[in-house]
Amino acid sequence: MNRPFTARAMRANWHAAALAGVAAEAVSDGHGDADDALSHCIDANEIPVRASATMLSCIAKYDRRYRCEFDRIVPLLLDSIRVGVDKPDSDCRHLANSAHSIVVLNCEGGRPVLDLIANAAERRIVEFDVTSLSTIAWAYVTSAIPSSERLLRAIARAAVPKLTESNSRSLSTLAWAFAKSGLRADTMFQAIAEASVPKLDQFSCQSLSTMVWSFATLNVPAPRLFQGVANLAARKLDDFSSLQLSNLLWAFVRANEQDEILLHSISVAVTARIHEFTPQGLYSVAWAFAR
Q1: Distances (CA, A) of 44 to 23, 83, 91, 114
Q2: What is the largest CA-CA distance in the chain?
């Protein structure tokens, strides 16, 4: 733990935002100093959303065993986001990251802050890039907030003209969020398919399986996408986990995109790795081959 650095920062008469940055840096080295640093801030509510989002993100990535060390910090960060969510300097990326971290941490008292972020995001949805749109969609679907449907519809509208500039992770996360919610957004899904096909070689195995699972779950046809995934996946099945294999197989059968070469290759891979599959995974495989 970098105690001398933190101690020097503590002795300095810095603005709250600067101290927040020091606290966030302390998180990467250990725990405890961040709590001390923030407690010396004159007014935690003066910390900008940018700093609060950074700190929450650090804590969310921290070893679960020690997250309790930050119990005094999190309520102050939530309060700073609450009062700062509508300020001009609250960047959309930081709003999205704040929502993501609040959900990951399952923060006590986080729901009212999520509601405020959702309202702000709806008003400013055109300012979000696709990465932030996918991040905030993931957060609100994972949190299962009933009122999030209006936000998701706004996300779907805002995403369409921006999808060609997106990366594979954002595309697959966005598709997953809508499939998980059960909310159809066919125009956005067709745009996702069109944006994904030219860059499928950039997709991880996780993103490939997530993408076709999402389209199959919502019964959105995308023949070119499925064909592209089939061609790519058949060459690298050894890189797929057992869960990814079962999801891939389920998706192709469910979507009636039964590429014979891919299905045969998956059956060989499943047989060779049968011991890796969970009961749920085996059920999905059995269901698919029984169709």
Answers
A1: 12, 11, 19, 19
A2: 70
Q: Are 24 and 55 in contact (CB under 8 A)?
A: yes
Residue 285, token pair as written in the block: 């495989």
pLDDT digits (tens, 9 = 90+) for 192-224: 999 999 999 999 999 999 999 999 999 999 999
Contact 285, 277 (CB under 8 A): yes
pLDDT in tens, 146-182: 778 999 999 999 999 999 989 999 999 999 999 999 9
Tokens 């936000």 belong to 151
User: SS3 sequence, 55-87?
Assistant: HHHHHHHCCHHHHHHHCCHHHHHHHHHHHHCCC
Q: Let me know: does 70 contact 35? Beta carbons within 8 Å.
A: yes
What is the distance of C-alpha 88 from the center of its chain?
25
**CA 230, CA 222: separation in Å to the nearest integer?**
12
Cα dihedral 161/162/165/170 (nearest 10):
-130
Measure the CA–CA gap between 30 and 12, rounded to whole angstroms: 21
Q: Cα–Cα distances in Å, from 266 out to 150, 163, 224, 235, 271?
A: 39, 30, 20, 11, 9
Structure tokens at 146: 């009933």
Find the length of the chain.
Answer: 291
